[in-house]
Amino acid sequence: MLSSLLARNQYSSRIPSFREAFSLLAGRPLRWVPQLLGFLVVIWYFGPIIRGGPPDDYVYELPLPIQHPHLPPLYKPPTASANDWKLRSHQVREAFVHSYKGYRDHAFPADELGPMSGKIHNNFNGWGVTIYDALDTMWIMGLTEYFEEAVKVIGEASYTTKPKQYVPFFETIIRHLGGLLSAYALSKDPILLQQADRMGEMLLPAFNSESGLPAYAISTRTNATRGGWTGNTLWAEALSNQLEYKYLAHITGKPEYFEKAERCMQLMYEANVTDGIFPTQWNTKTGAPSNNKFSVGAFADSAHEYLLKQWLMTSRSETKIKDLYLNASKSIIEHLLYITPNREMLYVTDADMLKPSPPKPNASPESPRTTTQGATSTPSSVPSGTFEHLSCFLPGLLALGVQTLDLPESEKEIHLWAAEGLAYSCWLTYADMKTGLGPDVMSMKMYPKNEDGLWLPRVEKWKQQGRSGRPPGLREPGAASEKAGRDYTIYKRSYLLRPEALESFYIMWRTTGNPVWRERGWTIFQAIEKYAKTEIGYASIVDVDKSSTKAPVKDEMPSYFLAETLKYLYLLFTDEEIIPLDRWVFNTEAHPIPIFEWTETEKKLFNIN
Ligand code: DMJ
Fold first, then answer.
1. Active-site choice (136, 237, 275, 301)
2. Where is average pLDDT lowest: 326-340, 374-388, 556-570?
3. CB distance 531 to ligand 1 below 6 Å
4. Residues annotated as region Disordered (predicted)?
5. How far apart are CA 471 and CA 169, in angstroms?
6. 193: enclosing H helix or E strand
7. What is the number of the ligand 1 atom nearest to the C-alpha of 590?
8. Is there a catalytic annotation at residue 301?
9. Secondary structure of 387-417 in the HEC alphabet?
10. Number of other residues whose CB lies within 10 A of the CB of residue 263
11. From the CA of 175, how far away is ligand 1's center (Å)?
């Protein structure tokens, strides 16, 4: 119809004006109605693609029904005859109320509470990070009144920065945006979606670097960006936005959210790295690796998480990402896992990867490695021997991989042993201390020849020798209160109310069903109650190995204590699986985001193949 109109029109190279079209159509009553309807349907369907964006009021319905047991939030206090775990989960809920009430009474709506002094700490953006981080925990615990009050405050926020103020991109994405998205997914309150969209849009120019990697910080007033002290983009910063921006693209239908995040993934697919050994620093301008350090601790940690979790979040559809996770986790197991000489504690460290020398002509390397660009090389590494509390998320991630990936039996076994051995070592670093709380960083005792401590070859040897007893690294030595027997020294003596060990215990409990992880979690919770509780909140511990009944504390209660530490404890002790792992993924700040499938429309809009 349109083409016949064009053919009859003297200006056939252009679209006829409305008046011309109408005068032509008017002479052919009724015959043109079906064609016109068809034309309108075509415009309706392809319109967003032609315009490059969805209609203004476009909001996706989540394809998977989010039937949350707490919709609307329900909570029944346990009766006196309730089982131990119910009572324990109730105690964690009370700990949350204690810390949030303290924040609310003394520091609301500033960023964080000083749990000793009652002072306010505006160490982030001054946007009230504790409110955003605590939001979904309130929902999960059925604290409706706090939740509703918080949503009101959030609804009034504008997210503009003061002149010369820059907000840290990584922290704001994982804490504020992650908190909003998760609370929206749980409650479906449209204010949270509106504010997530607003914040997502205001932070988006952080990706406007030459390479597309995000800057360290951004002024939402001017869109100017700033680099961090390393002058590079950390690997954790490069990727810890995928879950948030991709889910935001899904619920708003806006392609720019998907495209900016996906550009970072593209750089990873194209990077000249071997076997998923993604280094910790990247050149923000060129998008290329800028050092040769391989780590799962600070600078890298959550990027590893986001490889597996974004594959899971989009219903296992983006298989290229799964391959990156498989390669990276294989290399972690091969290059970063060591055991100590006496106690055989399995630990994960970081290492300088030595540049592989180019293969000699005619040489046949024993096991050639493939770079993402197709070249071959054989890397080797020099370990530092440090073991960070931050790395204690790894056992949980490996266990989640074992549960969700279709690994061959032999690999499944290795990944699970690595998860169990590492989670146990994380536990030991708590159990060994006088307070029962784990230090932030340990310096592990190493074999005189580093390679003698590599875990994988020892497991292979144990297999060859007939698999007698437990595999190396899983023999569970008891706690050692005496320093001499520990096989490590404490490098950073603080316990910063961090969640990573408890996060892994939760995933270990849910994926293996072994109740020992709940018991260990309970022991840690009791130590937190004993040493970290103050009159108005909970405080970080200065020295975890001090023998006095009251360990010295810092005037800090990080928002992640309410987002992560208390949430994982609560979920660990609640019998019912409130956030089922086959329906949700936790972002790196423990904000659950629902698993969804890209619709056909989204695939076209976002150019997903
Ligand atoms: C949290 O803010 C996040 O888990 C982040 O990825 C690293 N660690 C802190 C808490 O320790």
1. 301
2. 374-388
3. no
4. 352-383
5. 42
6. helix 190-203
7. 4
8. yes
9. EEHHHHHHHHHHHHHHHHCCCCHHHHHHHHH
10. 15
11. 9
Which residue, chain included where needed, has tokens 């109605």? 33
- For the record, the structure tokens of 249 come out as 């693209």
Catalytic residue among 112, 171, 344, 503: 171
C-alpha torsion sign, points 248, 206, 167, 198? negative
Helix, coil or strand: residue 294: strand
C-alpha to C-alpha distance for 544 and 168, rounded to whole angstroms: 30
Active site annotation includes 259? no
For 119-143, the pLDDT digits (tens) are 999 999 999 999 999 999 999 999 9
Q: Please give the number of the atom of ligand 1 that sits closest to the Cα of 302.
A: 6
Instruction: Point out the ligand 1 atom lying closest to the alpha carbon of residue 393.
Output: 4
Which residues are CB-neighbours of 113 under 8 A, at least 6 positions away? Answer: 99, 102, 103, 106, 107, 119, 120, 121, 130, 536, 537, 557
Whether 594 contacts 583, CB under 8 Å? yes
Separation of CA 589 and ligand 1 centre (Å) = 6
pLDDT (0 to 100) of residue 37: 72
- Read off the amino acid at residue 126: G
What is the DSSP-derived secondary structure letter of residue 170? Answer: H
Structure tokens given for 537: 């909140």
DSSP state of 564: I
Q: How far is the CA of 215 from the centre of ligand 1 (A)?
A: 19
pTM for the model? 0.87
Residue pair 169/203 in contact by the 8 Å Cβ criterion: yes
- 216-257 confidence digits (pLDDT tens): 999 999 999 999 999 999 999 999 999 999 999 999 999 999
For 156-234, strand residue ranges (E) read 167-168, 217-218, 225-226, 233-234
Our separate counts of H helices and E strands in the chain read 22, 19
User: Are 70 and 139 contacting, i.e. CB atoms less than 8 angstroms apart?
Assistant: yes
Q: How far apart are CA 596 and CA 256, in angstroms?
A: 19
175 is catalytic: yes
Tell whether ligand 1 has an atom less than 6 A from the beta carbon of residue 543: no
Instruction: Centre a 10 Å sphere on the Cβ of residue 609 and count the other Cβ atoms it contains.
Output: 5
Q: Are 475 and 344 within 8 A, CB to CB?
A: yes
What φ, ψ does residue 68 adopt, rounded to 5°? Answer: -85, 135
Q: What is the enclosing helix (H) or strand (E) of 434?
A: none
State if residue 301 touches ligand 1 by the CB under 6 angstroms criterion.
Answer: yes
Mean pLDDT of the chain: 89
How far apart, in whole angstroms, are the C-alpha atoms of residue 587 and residue 4? 54
Measured CA to CA, the distance from residue 206 to residue 169 in angstroms comes to: 7
Q: How many whole angstroms from 560 Cα to the centroid of ligand 1?
A: 7
- What does the pLDDT look like over 147-198, one tens digit per residue? 999 999 999 999 999 999 999 999 999 999 999 999 999 999 999 999 999 9
